[in-house]
Design brief:
The chain is an all-beta fold and about 100 residues long. Helix content is about 0%, strand content about 30%.
Length: about 100
């Protein structure tokens, strides 16, 4: 699960669905998706994801789109993520984000 974005959705935000590609901001991701990257990731781009709850159900985020990738909690292994989620990392990176 992605740690660190609590309160923004009224709960915990998880990244679910397949990664939609690299992004510089939420506007690159399409309506309802978010541009996120693991905390500590030095890349200027993030990954487009669909926000979901801890069960993988889509959660709608009504906050205004951000102009840069949001830093979210990170994972190193699939076991750092909730059941049914896996840790997606960029090539050569130690940390990634949990996705379903």
């Amino acid at each position: 699960m992605i740690r660190g974005i609590t309160g923004m959705l009224g709960g915990l935000m998880l990244a679910s669905g397949s990664a939609l590609g690299a992004c510089y901001n939420d506007f690159d991701c399409g309506f309802g998706n978010k541009c996120v990257k693991a905390s500590g990731d030095v890349n200027i781009t993030g990954v487009c994801v669909t926000p979901s709850d801890q069960y993988g159900n889509r959660s709608y985020d009504y906050t205004p789109p951000q102009s840069r990738p949001q830093n979210v909690g990170n994972c190193s292994f699939d076991t750092d993520c909730g059941i049914g989620f896996s840790c997606m990392k960029r090539s050569g990176q130690i940390y990634g984000i949990c996705v379903k």
